[in-house]
Amino acid sequence: MTDNRPVLTMTGISKSFPGVRALHDVNFRLLPGEVHALMGENGAGKSTLIKVLTGVYDTDAGAITLHGEPVSFAGPMQATAAGVSTVYQEVNLCTNLSVAENIFIGREPRLLGAVRWGEVRRRARTLLARLELDLDVSAPLGSYSLAIQQMVAIARAIDIQARVLILDEPTSSLDAGEVAQLFRIMRQLRDEGIAILFVTHFLDQVYEIADRITVLRNGGLVGEYTTTELPQLGLVEKMIGKELDVLEGIEEHSRRDLAAVEEGTPLVAVSNFGRAGAVEPFSLTIHAGEVVGLAGLLGSGRTEVARLLFGADRPDGGQVTVDGRPSSLRTPAQAIDHGVGFCSENRRAEGIVADLSVRENLILAMQAARGWLRPIPRRRQDELVDKYIKALTIRPSDPEVPVRNLSGGNQQKVLLARWLITEPRLLILDEPTRGIDIGAKTEIQKLVTQLSDGGMAVLFISAELEEVLRLSHKVAVMRDRQMVAQLANDDTLDADRVMQTIASGSHGEEADR
Amino acid sequence: MTTGTLTAGRARFRLPRRQIPVLATLALLLVMYGIGVSQYQAFSNVQVIFNIFIDNGFLLVVAVGMTFVILTGGIDLSVGSVVAMTAMVSASLLQKGLPAALVLVIALLIGPTLGLLMGCAIHFFEIQPFIVTLAGMFFARGMCTFISGSSIPISDGFWTRMSQERIGDPRGNFVSISVLIAFAVVAVAAYTLAYTRLGRNVYAIGGNPQSALLMGLPVGRTRIAVYTISGLCSAIGGILLSFYTLSGAPLIAVGMELDVIAAVVIGGTVLTGGSGYVFGTVLGVLVLGVIQTLITFDGSLNSWWTRIVIGGLLFAFILFQRLVGIRYK
């Protein structure tokens, strides 16, 4: 940080959407050669601030300067041309085009108007080599994993002679090794003098990489801090604006032990359940009031297990009993009939209907269960919607706002509430806390505990071991599309042992059943 | 997934996914041609292939324009009517005694202008291409009958020369000038799609319009451009048709848009956009042409059999694309 004049300043930024005040009088500045973390809960206004900066949205009020000059971008293209590049939370590339083309499209090297494909591929290889990525640059992007696609998006962003690089939750779909690699690149770019704006929900990552932190809450600015002066707990307090006794609540809550939970007939028991190419046959029992955690790496088959249990994919064979009676779960409709609910990990594509209001989204599953011929009276709808908006603290609390205008975490809550309204007996939660902030995370964890105490069975899938261990009575471990172990979550089980099981697949002992 | 250099899960199949449908069409074409040659001795004559191009040159040109539109994930239903309208306008202006060169310029401007307007409506008002181009189709067809209720013959010297000129080899095989024009259009289009920014933007928009926008690509301009290109191709197709028939008729090329869409889809372009080649479209048009020729050679079959076979093939190809798509998702 040799030069202390900010490369970018935003002053007095305000922005409203119909029914939502997304930003109110926010100031922000970015110094050259720093990694600056933008922190806040879901709905605090982080994404909106970035979209205002890059010209996706107009501002209602406020000014932006770049290198001291006032600027106002008409769109991401202009922002990029001025040296402000963005990598968004969801990978915004075209999977039908090749890796090289995704990096260069819109600014391909040309000769007399003709794209020089050889040059495009050569430069792409050079650039990816700088990021230590070894890819076939002429293969379609869609043939690579999401994590690789994210890296390609970053390659695209840094190739433009960027002075400001905005990374909007780039790490949410990366594993530890990939995150480390990303951070190495971020440090390298920072040392080259690029200002990096970094948005993430992982607090540890902030303290690992960021120099300074700006905190937003409810669309307003809380403050700007250096990482050294603001300890992690302080940061969380600034983000949620209250003391952290919420978190403690869960820790103290004593879990009922597995033997007590697994009494009597299991709610759902499957044996020899599997699907070729998706997951090897497995057996699993879930009792009423039991939380079964599903741990494993990305792509180890966690989601596939969930989809089989919900009937979204058909099993190749195996037996299913529900309440001890032989049964089948071959379609989602059958699963719903048996009281199974499924919150998908991919909330944007598979869950939320973005153009409908919060109320309509909430009512969907319940209406489907009743059949379309028996509409739910409006008064009953309002009661239900009110109850769940309060219970899950969905913000904004106006039920008529289109879900599209809500932040990611609040959309997740709407999705959860939609299933809760139908009062399922087994709720499958696939990564319910991914990409959402610590406050909402805590609320969702607390909710899971309450639901299980109330007798609901929950299959809880998460990449965060701590979370799985905190909530589950039993942890099933997935590795390479196999369920390698089921561990009772007693005092002896900790993250290390689960990790060992994931790594080796055999060291963990079988659970007592 | 450990640390270190990422080698990444490589694509499992090396055969490029996007070329599979085109290769399938090529195989189908060869099989059909083989059947023709084995059944009828005259089928192996090179002129048979040349005739397919002569009879379908205008269809090919229009299909090339449609390929652009479908690659962006859109559709253009107006093409058949625009072809007819262009032919009608040319015939009626020539009848009034305007010079051929001026008539050509006017006729070639009408199609792209209509395409431009439709593209603007689709982009600025965010209206479904299906509806906008349906309106364009009715408008253009209406204009045909407005110009004249009955067929107008063309006796202009330039037109008759273009119609009758034969470019051939010493053995007597020949093509018409229209075929050369069609090939030129194909070449320009293939180059545009493969080597220009406009062409690459077309693929990007077809792949994911939202991403294309965020990558800073001129989505609106490209979208308007493809409908303009389709309009231009329809106009050229209309001129070629008027060379071929030496007349303009208000009810010619009714339903042609559907043949064109069929040819593009059989040629391997995916209806949802983002994947396909002009070369595939050429093959698609050839498939239609070979079916027609086979039925003509047979002599006993009703010409409606062409439609039945095309219907079956179209369905088979869409099913095939779907299966290939699922396999690779």
Automatic annotation (TrEMBL), chain A:
Pfam families per UniProt: ABC_tran (PF00005)
The organism's place on the tree of life at top rank: Bacteria
Key words of the record: ATP-binding, Cell membrane, Membrane, Nucleotide-binding, Repeat, Translocase, Transport
Signal peptide span: none
Domain (ABC transporter) ranges: 8-243, 253-505
Localization per Swiss-Prot or TrEMBL: Cell membrane
Assigned GO CC terms: plasma membrane
Protein name, entry field: Sugar ABC transporter ATP-binding protein
From TrEMBL, chain B:
Subcellular location: Cell membrane
Transmembrane segments: 20-36, 48-71, 101-125, 131-154, 174-194, 224-244, 251-271, 304-324
One Pfam family in the UniProt entry: BPD_transp_2
Keyword terms, alphabetized: Cell membrane, Membrane, Transmembrane, Transmembrane helix
GO MF term list: transmembrane transporter activity
InterPro entries: ABC_transp_permease
Gene Ontology CC: plasma membrane
Main location per the UniProt record: membrane
Membrane topology of the entry: Multi-pass membrane protein
PANTHER family xref list: ABC TRANSPORTER PERMEASE PROTEIN YPHD-RELATED-RELATED (PTHR32196), INNER MEMBRANE ABC TRANSPORTER PERMEASE PROTEIN YJFF (PTHR32196:SF63)
Name the UniProt record assigns to this protein: Sugar ABC transporter permease YjfF
Natural source organism: Micromonospora acroterricola
